[in-house]
């Protein structure tokens, strides 16, 4: 049984995620057309080659069709979305320079405190613009670049040109074309050869405005024999109007490199989350994806990894869908070299009629001999009106491969609930204990602070308190 103090803490946490900042006549763009795209580029003072990418993407967006194989996206009307919401501050390198109303949100979310305790650098985006970005002096001296994407375009144009749109092409799908037409904010990371970061970097993306979209772009390059841990956080308060998130993450891990990319998404339940992530991994390298998907009305997110000789991919993910939510997530992997390995451990929880779908698309090419793929998906349904599906697609072009796919879908056990209640727990606390035990292997993959946050989000989802 929860104490009054615990109930107060839950209410306080809910209020933190639902904090809103009053909009004060900020510059905005409603809808999507050539004039809006050109005005965004002009206000950012971008070079012509960036505007050319935006206009090419706009043309493709207008030609490409909505996907028909996943959740219904017909509710989305881009002409009713604020596709750009400006900021009342410049990008700062000191939290004290961030306006109080915005800083109070990030203070409540614990971002400045996390930076002091355990991070080597932090970026914070509010609506369409980064309002804070800083890297420790120690990492700067090692040649590590960590800055907002607008600054990277201006100060490191050759690096950006070399990699931007090269991992995720503009023509990939309709919503990546939308992203490239409207991208604003995001982070740029460059880790030089041989540099191994002991402390993670974190970018946090907060969408505050109602009826708005967020289109941040994250580009990370980890050179040969280098390593990086990067954490991405996302959240938004709840509104009655539809919000849209169509960000993009491009990751390059060179030979003998390592990257752990962790994400906790806690979008409000009026959000369409149509995000795109992809990694190109060099020889003898490793990438780890750790994903937590909470909130959002609809999610469609399938990180793609391309593996070279002797490289590995590990994917660990969890999603939680409640009433009115359709979370369609998973991963894609291409084994493009020999002795490659992929291990997938995915879990989902659904309640009150929520829908969780896990899609995997594995392609082992003919030259990817001696490859190994292990895919495991476990789904827990809290009631008889919820739904969980697993949809695997596998292309194996060689027989020299070890492949396994295991999927388990089950309803929460009445016997286990009865047993725990006989030991003095309430029905709600018994269910929460079972769910936390189910999710524990995923939580253990996160850094300790984020594992705690994930467990809090699970508790709030069980109570239907995130909205």
Descriptive terms for the model:
13-stranded mixed beta sheet, alpha/beta, disordered N terminus, 467 residues, 12 helices, 27% helix, ten-stranded mixed beta sheet, globular
Question: Would you write up a description of this structure?
Answer:
By secondary structure, the protein is α/β, with parallel strands linked by helices. The chain has one domain. Helices cover 27% and strands 36% of the residues. Helix 2 runs antiparallel to helix 3, helix 7 crosses helix 8 and helix 11 runs antiparallel to helix 12. The N terminus is likely disordered.
**Structure class:** alpha/beta
Number of domains: 1
Sheet with most strands: 13 strands, mixed
Q: How much helicity do the residues have?
A: 25-40%
Number of strands: 25
| Low-confidence runs of at least 5 consecutive residues | 1-11
Give me the Rg, rounded: 22 Å
What is the beta-strand fraction? 35-45%
What's the layout of helices and strands?
Blueprint: H1 4-17, E1 28-30, H2 34-43, H3 48-63, E2 82-85, H4 100-109, H5 111-118, E3 121-126, E4 129-135, H6 137-141, E5 145-148, H7 149-155, H8 157-163, H9 174-182, E6 187-191, E7 201-206, E8 213-214, E9 217-222, E10 227-235, E11 243-245, E12 248-253, E13 258-267, E14 271-273, E15 276-281, E16 286-295, E17 298-301, E18 304-307, E19 312-321, E20 326-335, E21 341-350, E22 355-364, E23 371-381, E24 387-396, E25 401-411, H10 414-422, H11 427-443, H12 448-462
Parallel strand pairs: 3-7, 6-9, 7-10, 8-11, 9-12, 10-13, 11-14, 12-15, 13-16, 14-17, 15-18, 16-19, 17-20, 18-20, 19-21, 20-22, 21-23, 22-24, 23-25
Antiparallel strand pairs: 1-2, 3-4, 5-6
Helix pairs in contact: 2-3, 3-9, 7-8, 10-11, 11-12
């Amino acid at each position: 049984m929860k104490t009054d103090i615990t109930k107060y803490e839950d209410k306080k946490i809910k209020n933190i995620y639902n904090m809103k900042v009053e909009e004060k006549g900020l510059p905005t763009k409603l809808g999507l057309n050539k004039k809006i795209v050109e005005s965004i580029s002009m206000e950012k003072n971008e070079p012509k080659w960036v505007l050319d990418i935006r206009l090419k993407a706009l043309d493709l967006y207008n030609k490409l069709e909505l996907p028909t194989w996943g959740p219904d996206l017909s509710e989305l009307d881009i002409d009713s979305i604020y596709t750009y919401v400006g900021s009342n501050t410049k990008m700062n390198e000191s939290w004290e320079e961030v306006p109080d109303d915005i800083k109070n949100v990030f203070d409540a979310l614990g971002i400045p405190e996390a930076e002091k305790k355990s991070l080597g650098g932090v970026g914070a985006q509010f609506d369409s613009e980064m309002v804070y970005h800083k890297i420790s002096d120690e990492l700067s001296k090692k040649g590590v670049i960590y800055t907002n994407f607008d600054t990277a375009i201006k100060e490191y144009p050759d690096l950006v040109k070399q990699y931007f749109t090269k991992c995720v092409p503009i023509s990939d799908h309709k919503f990546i074309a939308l992203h490239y037409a409207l991208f604003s904010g995001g982070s740029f990371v460059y880790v030089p050869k041989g540099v191994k970061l002991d402390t993670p970097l974190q970018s946090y993306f907060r969408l505050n405005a109602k009826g708005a979209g967020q289109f941040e772009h994250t580009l990370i390059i980890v050179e040969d024999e280098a390593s990086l841990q990067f954490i991405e956080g996302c959240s938004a308060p709840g509104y009655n109007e539809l919000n849209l998130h169509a960000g993009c993450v491009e990751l390059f891990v060179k030979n003998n490199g390592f990257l752990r990319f962790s994400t906790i998404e806690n979008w409000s339940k009026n959000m369409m989350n149509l995000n795109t992530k992809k990694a190109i991994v060099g020889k003898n390298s490793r990438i780890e994806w750790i994903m937590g998907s909470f909130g959002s009305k609809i999610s469609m997110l399938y990180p793609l990894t391309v593996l070279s000789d002797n490289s590995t991919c590990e994917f660990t993910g969890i999603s939680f869908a409640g009433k009115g939510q359709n979370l369609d997530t998973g991963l894609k992997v291409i084994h493009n070299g020999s002795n490659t390995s992929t291990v997938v451990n995915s879990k989902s929880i659904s309640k009150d009629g929520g829908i969780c779908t896990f899609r995997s698309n594995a392609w082992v090419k003919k030259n990817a001999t001696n490859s190994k793929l292990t895919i495991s998906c476990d789904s827990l349904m809290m009631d008889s009106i919820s739904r969980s599906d697993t949809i695997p697609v596998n292309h194996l072009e060689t027989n020299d491969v070890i492949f396994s796919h295991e999927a388990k879908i089950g309803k929460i056990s009445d016997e286990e609930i009865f047993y725990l209640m006989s030991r003095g727990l309430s029905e709600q606390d018994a269910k929460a204990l079972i769910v936390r035990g189910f999710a524990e292997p995923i939580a253990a993959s996160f850094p300790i602070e984020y594992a705690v946050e994930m467990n809090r989000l699970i508790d709030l989802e069980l109570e239907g308190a995130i909205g």
